[in-house]
Structure formats: C-alpha cells, structure tokens
Design a protein that fits this description.
three-stranded antiparallel beta sheet; 48% helix; alpha+beta; heme; globular; 16 helices; 12 strands; metal-binding; oxidoreductase activity, acting on paired donors, with incorporation or reduction of molecular oxygen; Cytochrome p450; five-stranded mixed beta sheet
Length: 455
Amino acid sequence: MNIASMRRPIIPPTPPRAPDNMSFFGRIAVIKRNMIATWGQRAYEEEVIQGRFFLHKSFILNQPDAIRHVLLSNYQNYTRTPAGIRMLRPVLGEGLLLAEGHAWTFQRRTLSPAFTPRATANLVPHMTAVLDETIAKLETRTNEPVDLREIMQRMTLEIAGRTMFSFGMDQHGPTLRNFVMEYGERLGRAHFLDMALPVSWPTPMDRARARFRKRWTQFVAMLIAERRAVGKKHGAPPRDLFDLMDEARDPETGKGFSDEQLVDEVATMILAGHETTATALFWALYLLALDPDTQEEVASETRGEHLDSMVDIDRQKFTRAVIDETMRLYPPAFLVARAARGKDIVAGAEVNKGDIIMIAPWLLHRHEKLWDQPNAFIPKRFMSKEPPDRFAYLPFGAGPRVCIGAPFAQAESVLALARLIGAFRVELVDAAPVIPFGVVTTQPDHSPMFRITRR
C-alpha cells in the first residue's frame, strides 16, 4: 500500500526490538514485563516464523491467507491456549469471549440482536450525554495539566454503565476501576507456570485469580440486582443493553441466559467495552498531541457538526481514519494465540495437535511487507481506494469470532474523539516518550500529562 504525503509523518516511540537470537528463558523473563518487547526484527519482516513452545511447535503468522485459514476457514480446529484462558477467565468467566462450541454458538446467536447497527444507534444518546458532561468538566481545567488517560477511563466507564444499565457509575465506578487495575497490575501478567501447565493443573497465581473472581462476580451480580430493582415498564421498548440481554432468546431454541451466564456476559461487555475504548482514545489523543497538523484536520472536520446521531458519526470520515490508524499502531488485543485441536496445514507447514498459532496484530499491523511506512502515523492510508487486506488489519479480530461489539466501539470512539478535539486543542506537557507495553491490552507505560485549551 503506497502512501503519498506532503509532509513527513510522525513515528511514535516503541520498545526496542529483541535480539533475534534471544533464548527461550530470556523471552519468558521479558514476557512478564512487556510481551511486545519479545519480538525481534525477523518478526516484522518474515511471513511465517516457526519455533518451539515447550513440547510443541509454534508459528507466528504474518501472512493474510494463512490467518484467514486459521480464523475463518478452519477456525473450529483452533482453541484458546491455557495461558490465554488463565488470563481472561477470572474476569470474563464463560462469557462470549471465552466460550467454545455449542455454548459459544448459543451466546453469539442470542446476543447478536443487541449489537445491530439499529441497537447501537439507540444507545448514542447515552454516549452524547456523558460526553457533554465530560467536556463541561474539562472546561474548568483548561491551561492546567490533566491526565487524559484517567479521564478517558472515567468517561468510557460512565458510558458503559449508562448504556448497560441506564444509571451512572458515580457510586460504583471507583470500585470497578480498582478491580481492573488490581487485575492488570497483579494478576493479568503471564508467568512461566501459566504457560507450561495445562489449565486443569492450578498454578499459585490461579488460586489468587480464583479469589479475585469470587469478589468480582459478586460485584457484577450486585450491579445486576440494582438494575433489576429499577425494573422496566411492561410492554416498553428496551432502554439499555441490559434490557436487550435480559430479554434475549436464542432464535432457534427460545432459551435465554441464566443468572450466572448473565453475570459473565455483563462483565465481558463492561470490561471489553470500556477498557479497550478508553485505551484507544488515550492513544489517539497522544498521537494527535504529537501531530498538531492532523489534530487540526480533525477539528476542521467536526466544526459546525451537531454529532448526536449515527448519521453524524458516519460523516466523520477523517476522524474515523484517525481511530483506524490508532488501532493499527496500538491494537487493543496485541496477540491472538490459538492451540490446534488436530492436524492441519498452515502456510504449507504441518500443524499437529497442541501446536501454538500466534497471530499478533502488533506485528501484523507493523509488518514491512504489508504496510508502507509501517511505524508512521498516517491516518489517510485508511481513506485510500485500496483498503488493507481484511486479514492484515485485525483491531477487532476476524472470522466468526470477530468482536460482536465492534460497531458500538467504533461509533463511541469516533464520536468521542470528534467531540473532544472539536472542543479543545490538546498538547503534551510531559516530554518523556510514552512506550506501549502488552498486558492483556496495549497499554502506555505511564500516563503523561496534557494541557487542553478551548477552541
């Protein structure tokens, strides 16, 4: 994909690349600190890298056709790895993101009506109300240092609370954020035994995660109980995601979710919806602070727009391209790892049961054979007449298990960025480079301070 540009694009900072000859145990040590720092230059140049992962072969795939095969054509042959299950099950349980087989089919069919474009459009007023409140609060803090990462976390959590339950998160937001921070900082990092042992063999960290899960599910159940106490008028249309999920029925069997299943689904939607969107918005604001010219283009596009409906959101073509480019450089899920259930042929190589397939959007989105100037911030590449290969750009995954909430997340991200940049000019106060690191999602190594001024 060739990109013509009138000016030299910015290249945001990244971790140093690992030596290609780093030892297995050296990589294990780095994984605990920053997974994306374990890959060397070969991983950004070669289409397939074969190695060993304990007793099995491993493959890093950067070839779109091979990725299509694993995620689409033969997706049923691949399941999550033990480490992946250990990292996600304590917070997501058996919700849609982790379910397999018939359980996944049931959940996907049942939840799909809640995430149609029409259903998303009905939730936009919740988003705009929270954005109005956020902008009003920020207007009192112009010309002083602000932590926009924390503000984005609070804002997207409030949007998640209102779109899910129709009530604000002032009372419960701090507790929920504490759960997220506790898990990410203490329990969400992979350790050697997490990767070496099958899921049926508990590790010391698994016991701590189990204790966390008990507290976490009790908290989510309490939120659901509060929402149910509010009730819903008989015959009234659904007013939030909870109504849609509580009333959802499998179109084939008529079966709905049990209370235990509903806890896992609500946890999945709140966490996947608020944390990844907050992080994407932080990175977008950081990039626009580094690139004032692109920031002004976003502001120009939003000028005079009401931005309170899906029609308005769909008109923000350049802002959408900025979000797309942000998620290329900082993909929410930096790694998708799958274990083979049985034999297969991938990219001409023989795959056996238990072998590990790694599809890393962090690598794929920066691969030197797939992208022109892969490390540069060039939003207009997503306005080209030649879009990237569907399996070379995976911010929300691909195939049958593509993120069900992608339309919601995209609408929220575009709307929020357009409204914020339309209202404020954003600059960095902190000159220290922000380095991305991978722990569950692609996070910044620190929260820089910004200065905002009213336009």
